[in-house]
Design goal:
Elements lengths: L2 E10 L9 E6 L4 E8 L4 H23 L12 H23 L7 E2 L1 E7 L2 E7 L3 E6 L2 E4 L6 H7 L5 H6 L19 E6 L5 E5 L1 H4 L4 H10 L3 H14 L6 E10 L2 H13 L1
Antiparallel strand pairs: 1-11, 2-3, 3-4, 3-5, 5-6, 6-9, 7-8, 7-10, 10-11
């Protein structure tokens, strides 16, 4: 079975920051979506996140068009996931080099959570503490793992999630793009079902608005564009302490006409 995802996204500076260091991408022609949350002094965070999104998209598109099989190759996931992961590593190289080439950009980095649709599965490449959630049958599941110090402590049983939410260490990342030459990028795949909702977001949303409230908002608002706007408004109402970015998508089944069109595309590719 083949699905499609209708996606909507929005980003806001929040109430406390002077600029927006988040970036996001909706590329329906590639069935690709990305969120990135930059960090660094001056405008470096903005530079890092925008580079991450731009370079990942360009390289994924190139590999998808040519059918390139990346090396090294992870046999546990699909070609699409491998291509996306490779594209993210290429973005890391560009950010790392930019960070070492200019003093103003030294130490810059970014989170990145990207996903592409491959038939009936979602292929994810992820690094940092931005998140991708799946909302299905009233329940919300986090598909990505936070690469942060406090969440490592939660996974080891040293902190509860409630303690992590108020910890002064919650902004310390253990992995991000641009901070190492070859960081580890998580590749995750999940099978989709008709009616699934997807939420991509930076920490400016989930640190300001409780997960349960986010789940209820997504469930209550079937319009993806309005859902994004309402969640950003809720984060700002809670003080808007950080930049806020959200992408919401709804999974539906492709029509026979759309499947035939896809077959012709592949035939003439």
């Amino acid at each position: 079975m083949k699905f499609k995802i209708a996606l909507a996204g929005a980003s806001d500076m929040g109430k406390a920051r002077k600029n927006n260091e988040d970036s996001y991408l909706l590329a329906p022609e590639l069935e690709l979506a990305i969120v990135a949350d930059g960090m660094g002094g001056h405008n470096s965070g903005e530079v890092a996140s925008s580079l991450a999104v731009k370079v990942t998209r360009e390289n994924y598109e190139s590999m998808r068009r040519t059918g390139m099989k990346p090396s090294p190759y992870n046999d546990k996931v699909s070609l699409s996931a491998n291509q996306l992961g490779c594209a993210v590593q290429m973005a890391n190289s560009v950010i790392f080099e930019a960070g070492t080439a200019q003093a103003d950009n030294k130490g810059m980095g970014t989170t990145l959570s990207a996903a592409v649709l491959d038939g009936d599965r979602l292929c994810i490449a992820h690094i940092g503490d931005s998140r991708i959630y799946l909302v299905r049958a009233g329940a919300m599941q986090q598909l990505t793992e936070d690469h942060s110090l406090v969440m490592e402590h939660v996974r080891k049983g040293l902190l509860t999630r409630e303690q992590a939410e108020v910890s002064p260490l919650q902004n310390i990342l253990t992995r991000a793009l641009g901070t190492q030459k070859t960081p580890s990028v998580d590749l995750v795949e999940v099978m989709l079902e008709e009616g699934d909702r997807l939420l991509f977001c930076t920490d400016g949303l989930f640190k300001a608005v409780k997960e349960e409230t986010i789940r209820q908002m997504v469930m209550a608002q079937p319009d993806d564009t309005k859902a994004c706007a309402e969640m950003i408004a809720a984060a700002n109402a809670a003080g808007g302490p950080d930049n806020i970015t959200a992408i919401v998508g709804t999974v539906s089944r492709k029509s026979l006409k759309e499947n035939i069109k896809d077959m012709f595309k592949k035939s003439y590719a």
